[in-house]
């Protein structure tokens, strides 16, 4: 009984350890929180709040190219084909709008705290 | 539609255009577009000389499923143009020459388009050609005369041609934009022209709103049209939407051309205006060129849509 219980605990710990390993080995949720995907002609999420010093990544998941262009002229990705990504580090607090210059109805905002 | 009689009215012309069928040639006579069967035109010398051809959205660099060989379909298009019974004076390319604005794409496009056996090639940029913002690669290869503005005009065969750029001063959340400077330039450019001069205006994005949710239009186009209203014959040619859409309003005829690369969905079908995948045997029917011919001074001009198959 005791042994069995110990075995179950050991097995549970192992599963937990594997889960931890899996989550840290995969491109982690920590990264995902700072990633915006371009999918079905939308930025998702459309608005993202991050701390100053964060690098935000945009990844295109459409088979049509998109771009990421800062409203204020701070950054411009150039054409991102399917699965291409672009990153930009936000050092200062503020609100930063961006748009896809190929499909200007695609817009989004980064809020840096 | 195989039109074997010369139609007499704009209504007939529109009926034929609405059919969107292969090989219809349009003549513009006194501002009225008249469709003529392309095969008939090819054998009837009396129909007039070919004037110019419009191609669009070649998207050199694209290689996905919707068309893995855009160089091949452009080459086929150029073959059709070079095989016209009489050589057109010029070819107009209404933008999206390349897919991703890459130097090697522009190089490949310039090389392919160099195979055109016609007088001049006139281009306007599409938004895919200027993703760097300044359009550096585009202007270096295709437009060395407009001082990197992308709009200009010229006269040929008694027709005044105006190239407009509606892809470089876009507004977030909106449509294509010409901008105040360009509209002011257009007003000045048209001022000295007589109202009887046929005018052909061409730009990449449609100059009338076809479908706003996908950005298929130009927000300030109406301001540009104001100085065009007095002209007896205005033909407005665009690309961008990879399919034929037409309308006639007063003396203005609007026409968007097919792509030579891949089709796009009709407005509002699916999540957005991306490449439309169709069976391989259907693809050539959805690609093609528009040709325009003129028969005699200030008389019939023809607009033709020809698919690759």
List its salient traits:
heterodimer; A: 113 residues; alpha/beta; four-stranded mixed sheet; 2 helices; globular; disordered N terminus; B: 309 residues; seven-stranded mixed sheet; six-stranded mixed sheet; 7 helices; 21% helix
Give an overview in words:
The complex is a heterodimer of chains A (113) and B (309). Chain A is of the alpha/beta class. Helix content of chain A is 25%, strand content 35%. Chain A contains two helices and eight strands. Chain A has helices at residues 2-25, 29-32, and strands at 35-39, 42-44, 47-50, 54-60, 69-70, 85-90, 94-99, 107-112. Chain B has 309 residues and is of the alpha/beta class. Chain B has seven helices and 13 strands. In chain B, helix 3 runs parallel beside helix 4 (103-113) and helix 4 (103-113) runs parallel beside helix 5 (136-142). Chain B is globular. Chains A and B meet through loops of A and loops of B.
Order of helices and strands of chain A: HHEEEEEEEE
End-to-end gap of chain A: 54 Å
User: Major sheet of chain A: size, sense and barrel closure?
Assistant: 4 strands, mixed
Any idea what the shape of chain A is?
Answer: globular
- Basic shape of chain B: globular
Describe the structure concisely for a colleague.
Chain A contains 2 helices and 8 strands. Chain A has 113 residues and is of the alpha/beta class.
List the helices and strands and how they pair.
The complex is a heterodimer of chains A (113) and B (309).
Chain A: H1 2-25, H2 29-32, E1 35-39, E2 42-44, E3 47-50, E4 54-60, E5 69-70, E6 85-90, E7 94-99, E8 107-112
Parallel strand pairs in A: 1-4, 3-8
Antiparallel strand pairs in A: 1-2, 4-6, 5-7, 7-8
Chain B: H1 10-19, E1 24-29, E2 32-37, H2 38-43, E3 49-55, H3 70-82, E4 90-93, H4 103-113, E5 120-123, H5 136-142, E6 152-156, E7 159-163, H6 180-191, E8 199-202, H7 221-225, E9 234-238, E10 245-249, E11 252-256, E12 288-294, E13 301-307
Parallel strand pairs in B: 3-4, 4-5, 7-8, 8-9, 9-11
Antiparallel strand pairs in B: 1-2, 1-13, 3-12, 6-7, 10-11, 12-13
Helix pairs in contact in B: 3-4, 4-5
